[in-house]
Specification:
By secondary structure, this protein is an alpha+beta fold. 49% of the residues lie in helices and 12% in strands. It has twelve helices and seven strands. The chain has a four-stranded antiparallel sheet. The chain has a three-stranded antiparallel sheet with strand order 1-3-2. β5 and β6 form a beta hairpin. α1 crosses α4, α9 runs antiparallel to α10 and α10 packs antiparallel against α12.
């Protein structure tokens, strides 16, 4: 699936297995296979940490309909919390404005780290790479996502703090369509989503069991979600193909998990 961190896999699995309403999810064998998880001690420990931090809620299966023959790994249901969702959005900003409204503010991040400290610069770039930031000008990055507090936590009392400046602003005038194309290459992202739809069609058309197909669908979706900056409808339009892709994914999920 292309995701190594177990914590991220769990949060993503909970979101993609429910919806923006954060319904409870059974971590069945099917879901574990699709999201490349196994209910071993490390996974249980990660769940425990997420629950303790209020990123995930848990309820016993006895609180819902009793299921005959339920195994230990299915003895509980889990759901994403608002706090867990916000953490997920740092890796997958495409989800944020499916649930939340945009506050109309732009965040501008600037960092000029000397060439002799290239490793430090590359480290910072990797850490903020999933925050919906796009290159505006040299050393200036732009995003509509509320990432200032996260940035403060990231660089506070760290060596890179001395090189970082951050701003919040409103857009006063200028063609926003030109800006969005320049910073995030909207037309190229649209093309990649259309290619995704073709891949999904091919996956659904070929032979194979439903779990394998669903795993392939999720894998292809995650690839493009990593690239989508998650711009709000106010900037990219209500009919943005990324919103359509999420609705199509839910339809496919319903077919392949029935």
């Amino acid at each position: 699936m292309g995701i190594k961190e177990r914590r991220t896999k769990i949060l993503l699995a909970l979101f993609l297995s429910s919806d923006v309403n954060f319904g409870y999810v059974h971590f069945t064998d099917q879901i574990q296979k699709v999201f490349d998880l196994s209910f071993n001690q490390k996974t249980k420990g990660t769940f425990s940490a997420l629950i303790k931090e209020d990123h995930v809620d848990k309820r016993g299966i006895e609180e819902t309909e009793a299921q005959a023959g339920a195994t230990d790994k299915m003895s509980h249901q889990y759901r994403l919390t608002d706090k867990g969702f916000l953490e997920l959005c740092l890796d997958f900003p495409a989800f944020r404005y499916m649930k939340e409204g945009w506050d109309g503010k732009w965040r501008i991040l600037s960092y000029e780290i000397p060439e002799k400290k290239r490793d430090l610069r590359d480290k910072l770039r990797r850490e903020v790479s999933g925050w919906g930031l796009g290159p505006w000008h040299r050393s200036f990055w732009l995003t509509p996502h509320p990432i200032i507090d996260n940035l403060k936590q990231l660089v506070s009392q760290q060596e890179e703090e001395q090189y970082v400046q951050a701003f919040e602003s409103s857009h006063v005038f200028g063609d926003r369509e030109i800006l969005i194309e320049k910073v995030w290459q909207k037309s190229q992202l649209d093309k990649r989503y259309r290619e995704l739809f073709k891949k999904w069609h091919d996956i659904l058309s070929r032979e194979g069991d439903k779990v394998q197909k669903y795993q392939s669908v999720v894998t292809e979706y995650v690839k493009i979600l990593r690239q989508d900056p998650g711009l709000p409808a106010e900037l990219i339009g209500q009919n943005w193909i990324g919103f359509e892709a999420f609705n199509i994914f839910k339809e496919i999920r319903s077919i392949l998990t029935s």
